[in-house]
Design brief:
This protein has about 170 residues and is α/β, with parallel strands linked by helices. It contains seven helices and five strands, in the order βαβαααββααβα. Pathway: Metabolic intermediate biosynthesis; chorismate biosynthesis; chorismate from D-erythrose 4-phosphate and phosphoenolpyruvate: step 5/7.
């Protein structure tokens, strides 16, 4: 059964879009960060603090690989870094897989993230200038992996509903 994978940088809207899409097409939704949090009974922040990022990436890969092995149909919202570690991007081209990169500009990401950074350990301690710089460099480094998705939707200036409609059009 098909898997719809939404990927992209922190704040591009994976969780928000995946939730709405799931309701709209009536396919169950899972958020990878939430699954990891449930599995370890710790927040993403706490996992980074207690166990470090490498441990988080290991668990992230295990949880993602398990989901991809299941036969269930689902919408999966990945974590921002998921495509960039442990060859997770190799799952993007499988049979019955629709992988979609939600592409946002540095400015869009900055605007969305600077109001709500505390839950995101990679940026939580940065001031505005550091954050802009960090997003620009990080996005550049990660773009190769994001571009492994089968489809790309530019999300700048689009409402949640518009982006969801574009995803649905791709699936048709
Ligand atoms: N048009 C839009 N589409 C999606 N999200 C939007 C839009 N406008 C504002 N937002 C807001 O931007 C934020 C996007 O966050 P969301 O948690 O969905 O991103 P994410 O890609 O899942 O990030 P992370 O990788 O950190 O989990 C939310 O606060 C959401 O309400
Ligand atoms: O971009 C990243 O590397 C991350 C994004 C979040 O979704 C979480 O998975 C975590 O904060 C790491
Ligand atoms: Mg998310």
């Amino acid at each position: 059964m098909k898997k719809i994978i939404l990927l992209g940088y922190m704040g591009c809207g994976k969780s928000t879009i995946a939730k709405k899409l799931s309701k709209s097409i009536q396919v169950p939704f899972v958020d990878l960060d939430e699954m990891i949090e449930k599995k370890l009974n710790l927040s993403v922040n706490a996992i980074f603090e207690k166990h470090g990022e490498i441990y988080f990436r290991k668990i992230e890969h295990e949880v993602f690989a398990d989901l991809m092995q299941s036969t269930e149909e689902m919408v999966i919202g990945l974590g921002g870094g998921t495509p960039c570690y442990a060859n997770n991007h190799e799952f993007f081209k499988g049979e019955n897989v629709f992988s979609i990169y939600l592409k946002a500009s540095i400015e869009t990401l900055f605007q969305r993230l600077h109001q709500n950074k505390s839950k995101r350990p990679l940026i939580a301690s940065k001031n505005e200038e550091e954050m802009r710089e960090f997003i620009a460099k990080h996005l550049f480094d990660r773009s190769f992996y994001y571009n492994q998705a089968q489809y790309k939707i530019v999300v700048d200036e689009k409402s949640i509903e518009q982006t969801v409609s574009e995803v649905i059009a791709l699936l048709a």
